[in-house]
Amino acid sequence: MQRRPRPKLPKIPAEMGQWSDLLLREILGWPHVSSRPMFGMIAVYHGDAIFGVLPRTRAMDSPYSVSFKIARLTAVLEKSLKGERRILPHNSKAKWISFELESGDDLPDAMQWFARAYRLAIKANKSV
Question: Can you spell out the DSSP letters for 47-71?
Fold first, then answer.
């Protein structure tokens, strides 16, 4: 059986580590959120449903990216993703989406995307 090649996880700069810590502190304040280390990142969960990853030493796509999971892509969400220039290119069927921070000023917008993913994780937990 042939294994898929391991994805390249870029190292992050110190500045990105600081931004990631700020985002993580805020997200951990939301109800029923927990975190676990995962491949140089910190995964955030609502119950058992993962809804995002924040870089600790590595990132998913670019050194300045955070990633969130959109389990069910609605037309409204798809339109929002396409209209957001900081969303990294992705397959329209992809569940994991990366948002690239250009500066600390992008933190509130990243937080809004995590909030959307969090709300979808709540719905996923309720349907189980």
Answer: TTEEEEEEESSB-SSSTTEEEEE-S
For residue 14, how many other CB atoms are within 10 A of its CB?
A: 6
Question: Which two structure tokens, joined as six digits, stand for 5?
Answer: 């090649």
Instruction: Tell me the β-bridge partners of 33.
Output: 46
List 38's β-bridge partners, or say none.
41
Query: Are 63 and 28 in contact, with CB atoms under 8 Å apart?
Result: no
d(CA 41, CA 59): 7
Considering Cα of 29, then 20, then 111, then 88, what sign does the dihedral take?
negative
pTM score, two decimals?
0.88
pLDDT digits (tens, 9 = 90+) for 36-87: 999 999 999 999 999 999 999 999 989 999 999 988 888 888 888 888 999 9
The 3-state DSSP class for residue 45 equals strand
